[in-house]
């Protein structure tokens, strides 16, 4: 009979080895990802640098121009220049959004014979991103736009599981649905690791900012005993608000065990949530082309 700790160590090692074995594939995603990561990490990078990278990729360029020319921005004249489009939407938002699009699109496009609703996953991720940013704005935090990015990538570990461990992913999905428990609880019980750790591992390998890695790693786990606003707590709260209001789907509809505590800590009332959801609807509709994966 296996000792519990031995099984735990073995399963964690098994997942780690699966990721290590496939990191050559993760690390050789379309070349544009490398360029986007470098821009993301370089505080000296500019709109011109980002425009050059996006312009070199026909799909990303097309998606960006569709966003800026959508009814959401209500521009009087069509924008055809990438640099101009970036200046209108915001440099930080676009550079990270393009990164996420590339990662997510590649992961889903590599699937063969499996079905997971990419559109619903995108809606969940976008809603979490918008609500994270709006909570940051409500708290008057300087990094509100970074919270948008953190919300957008918080479940990136699930994308990697779907890509490289599809059998495990679908087993977890099936049990979570059948027993009405969280995706996170199932994966911890079965494999002694979870998508948060997997996502943080990959983002560390990609050398992404520490704040994003922390949000991905801890959005299900730690509730820090501080009076300060913690980015990973805000993402966790936004994730739960999204689930409570059934916006999209990322594997389960179970909110965090810390949901009520976080609402209290950040003074988030139901009336505020209802107003915020109006903006969520508008922004997710604005990004419908991307969510629908239209080329």
From the alpha-carbon coordinates, what is the Rg to the nearest angstrom? 19 Å
Total of DSSP H or I helical runs spanning 4+ residues: 17
Q: Describe the main β-sheet briefly.
A: none
Q: Using DSSP, what is the number of strands?
A: 0
What proportion of the residues is helical, as a percent range?
A: over 70%
Q: How many distinct domains?
A: 1
Defining key terms:
mainly alpha; 295 residues; 17 helices; Hypothetical protein af1432
Characterise this structure:
The chain has a single domain (4-291), classed as Orthogonal Bundle (Hypothetical protein af1432). With 295 residues, the protein is mainly α. The protein is 70% helix and 0% strand. Helix 2 packs antiparallel against helix 6, helix 3 packs across helix 5 and helix 7 packs antiparallel against helix 8 (144-153). The N and C termini lie far apart (53 Å). The longest helix has 24 residues, at 4-27. The chain has 17 helices and no strands.
């Amino acid at each position: 009979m296996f000792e519990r700790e031995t099984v735990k160590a073995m399963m964690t090692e098994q997942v780690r080895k699966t990721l290590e074995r496939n990191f050559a594939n993760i690390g050789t995603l379309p070349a544009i990802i490398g360029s986007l990561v470098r821009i993301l990490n370089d505080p000296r990078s500019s709109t011109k640098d980002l425009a050059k990278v996006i312009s070199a990729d026909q799909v990303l360029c097309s998606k960006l121009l569709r966003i800026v020319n959508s009814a959401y921005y209500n521009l009087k004249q069509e924008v055809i220049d990438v640099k101009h489009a970036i200046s209108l939407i915001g440099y930080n938002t676009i550079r990270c959004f393009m990164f996420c699009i590339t990662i997510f699109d590649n992961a889903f496009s590599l699937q063969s014979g499996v079905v997971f609703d990419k559109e619903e996953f995108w809606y969940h991720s976008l809603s979490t991103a918008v609500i994270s940013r709006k909570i940051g704005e409500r708290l008057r935090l300087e990094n509100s736009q970074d919270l948008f990015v953190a919300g957008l990538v918080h479940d990136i570990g699930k994308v990697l599981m779907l890509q490289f461990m599809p059998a495990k992913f679908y087993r977890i999905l099936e049990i979570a649905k059948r027993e009405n428990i969280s995706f996170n609880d199932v994966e911890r019980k079965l494999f002694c690791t979870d998508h948060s750790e997997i996502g943080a591992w990959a983002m560390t390998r990609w050398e992404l900012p520490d704040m994003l890695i922390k949000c991905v790693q801890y959005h299900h786990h730690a509730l820090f005993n501080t009076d300060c606003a913690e980015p990973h707590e805000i993402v966790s709260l936004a994730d739960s608000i999204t689930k409570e209001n059934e916006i999209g789907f990322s594997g389960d509809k179970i909110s965090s065990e810390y949901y009520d505590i976080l609402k209290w800590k950040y003074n988030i009332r139901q009336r505020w949530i209802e107003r915020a959801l109006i903006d969520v609807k508008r922004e997710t509709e604005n990004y419908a082309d991307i969510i629908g994966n239209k080329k």
